[in-house]
Write a structure and sequence with these properties.
- The protein is an alpha/beta fold.
- Helices cover 33% and strands 27% of the residues.
- It is built from 7 helices and 11 strands.
- It has helices at residues 45-52, 78-83, 100-110, 116-129, 145-157, 175-190, 202-207; strands spanning 5-16, 19-30, 34-38, 58-59, 62-65, 68-69, 85-89, 163-167, 194-198, 211-216, 219-221.
- The protein has a 6-stranded mixed beta sheet with strand order 7-8-9-3-10-11, sandwiched between helices. Strands 1, 2, 4, 5 and 6 form a 5-stranded antiparallel beta sheet that branches.
- The longest helix is centred in the C-terminal third of the chain and has 16 residues, at 175-190.
- Bound molecules: adenosine-5'-triphosphate (ATP).
- Adenosine-5'-triphosphate binds at residues 16-17, 19, 21, 39, 41-47, 215.
- This is Cell division ATP-binding protein FtsE.
- Part of the ABC transporter FtsEX involved in cellular division. Important for assembly or stability of the septal ring.
- One of its GO terms (cellular component) is plasma membrane.
């Protein structure tokens, strides 16, 4: 990828099975960008995120994410692409049977970390970034919903991703906690990691005005309004 570009889609068509969900998609996200992704249910937000993390193949046009050419992405490349992306999704919650520390270690081992000291250091480092260093030994059920979401963000930061993809990260949280989580994601973007958040929560978008991408009528509008 050239310069600061992290995601670049040009003239891409996105299919789910044989159904054309989005056509002629153009999308450009740079290092440190903080971007909202909106659109009605079924408009294609998840499909667009899936293109970026290599779960839906693209046809037509050109697509790049995290330095990978999405048109040439082989199955063996997908885990490496995903290490460049931090994923914060509702269906990717913490493992409830182990401590915060062990949740983070589990992901590190699965992504090739072997040195025990480095694993411990990185665990504390990412927990520090989300303000939860003191909770390292706790079990997930001992944390509030907002704290658990912070740990999910810490986990997404482990491999120093170029972008965080978050799908409804505040879906289960009260308004104040939602603001704290978005504030944290905003700070993360200011330190250079881009952040793309899909949400239906217009209140939170108004609280943190930033670029809005909208899926509508089979198209992606790159600079939309609420
Ligand atoms: N695996 C699939 N197979 C076939 N069609 C699918 C599949 N996944 C999604 N679709 C269809 O693609 C379209 C876009 O769905 P998508 O999940 O991307 O929307 P969304 O904007 O993320 O919706 P929501 O806000 O409800 O999460 C819908 O018409 C949906 O029915």
């Amino acid at each position: 990828m050239i310069g600061n570009t992290i995601i670049k889609l040009e003239g891409v068509d996105v299919f789910q099975q044989k159904h054309l969900v989005l056509s002629n998609v153009n999308l450009h996200i740079d290092k440190g960008d903080f971007v909202w992704l909106i659109g009605q249910t079924g408009s294609g937000k998840s499909s667009l995120l899936k293109v970026i993390y290599g779960d839906v193949a693209i046809t037509g046009g050109e697509g790049h994410a995290g330095g990978y050419d999405l048109k040439k992405l082989a199955v063996k490349d997908v885990p490496f692409l995903r290490r460049k992306l931090g994923i914060v999704f509702q269906d990717f919650q913490l493992l409830t049977d182990r401590s915060i520390e062990d949740n983070l270690r589990f992901v590190m081992r699965a992504t090739g970390w072997t040195d025990k000291n480095l694993i411990t250091e990185r665990t504390l480092d990412v927990l520090e970034k989300v303000g939860l260093r003191s909770k390292v030994k706790k079990m997930p059920h001992e944390l509030s919903g907002g704290e658990q979401q912070r740990v999910v963000i810490a986990r997404a930061l482990i491999n120093d991703p170029e972008i965080i993809l978050a799908d409804e990260p505040t879906g289960n949280l009260d308004p104040d906690t939602s603001e704290e989580i978005v504030m944290l994601l905003k700070q993360i973007s200011q330190s250079g990691t881009a952040v793309l958040i899909a949400t239906h929560d217009y209140h939170i978008i108004r609280a943190f005005p930033s670029r809005i991408i909208k899926c509508e009528a089979g198209k992606v509008i790159e600079d939309a309004e609420l």
